[in-house]
């Protein structure tokens, strides 16, 4: 399955992203990335290819100022709305690991009507939104490494206990980047959830 490199210009900034799978698929999955990572990590561990082969249209982007994307002023969740509009994507599944989990949370709170589902993986700064988590009305999957030393496991419990109907999957014995450490299992969990 071919993974293509593409660019879009948003407010004068060149934004780099990868795409894979059938562009006509109604199931669009946007993959964000952690602070020390880029879109390339999703490709390198095979997650993009595996999701594409399961019938999803997958988009992994370099957030502004990361990877091959130019920096851009403003809030990341607003940029994400502009990016999805530019790609003419009305509804999508959003995957936010680590620091991008906070972006995904903010997007769900502000633009939840655009999401088919929200997938949070070892998200940081969760406690900042504790009082607003009950306002999230999006189907949500929480994936966490039990031995996460950056985003403590208590954050996973906080999300699970406050986002209505959310599902928590725990990678026992794994840490913060559990999705990159065990990509095959991650894809299985994600596919089961997205297809449900």
TrEMBL record:
Hydrolase found in the keyword field: yes
Cross-referenced Gene3D superfamilies: alpha/beta hydrolase
Domain AB hydrolase-1: 29-123
One GO location term (cellular component): cytoplasm
GO molecular function terms noted in the UniProt entry: hydrolase activity
Pfam family, one: Abhydrolase_1
InterPro entries, per the entry: AB_hydrolase_1, AB_hydrolase_fold
EC number(s) from the headed UniProt entry: 3.7.1.14
Subcellular location: Cytoplasm
Primary location recorded for the protein, binned into one broad class: cytoplasm
Claim: Cytoplasm is one of the keywords in the record: yes
The entry's keywords: Cytoplasm, Hydrolase
Family affiliation: Belongs to the AB hydrolase superfamily. ABHD14 family.
Protein name: 2-hydroxy-6-oxononadienedioate/2-hydroxy-6-oxononatrienedioate hydrolase
Gene assigned in the entry: mhpC
């Amino acid at each position: 399955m071919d993974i293509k490199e593409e660019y879009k210009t948003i407010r004068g900034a060149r934004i780099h992203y990868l795409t894979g799978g059938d562009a006509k698929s109604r199931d669009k999955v946007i993959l964000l990335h952690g602070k020390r990572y880029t879109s390339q990590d999703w490709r390198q561990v095979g997650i993009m290819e595996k999701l594409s082969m399961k019938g999803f249209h997958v988009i992994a982007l370099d957030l502004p100022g990361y990877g091959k994307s130019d920096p851009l002023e403003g809030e990341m969740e607003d940029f994400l709305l502009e990016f999805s509009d530019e790609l003419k994507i009305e509804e999508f599944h959003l995957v936010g690991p680590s620091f991008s989990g906070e972006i995904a949370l903010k997007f769900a709170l502000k633009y939840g009507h655009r999401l088919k589902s929200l997938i949070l993986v070892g998200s940081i700064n969760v406690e900042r939104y504790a009082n607003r988590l009950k306002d999230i009305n999006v189907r949500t999957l929480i994936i966490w490494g039990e031995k996460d030393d950056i985003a403590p496991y208590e954050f996973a419990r906080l999300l699970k206990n406050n986002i209505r109907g959310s599902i928590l999957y725990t990678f026992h014995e794994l840490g913060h980047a559990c999705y990159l450490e065990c990509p095959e299992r991650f894809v299985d969990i994600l596919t089961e959830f997205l297809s449900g």
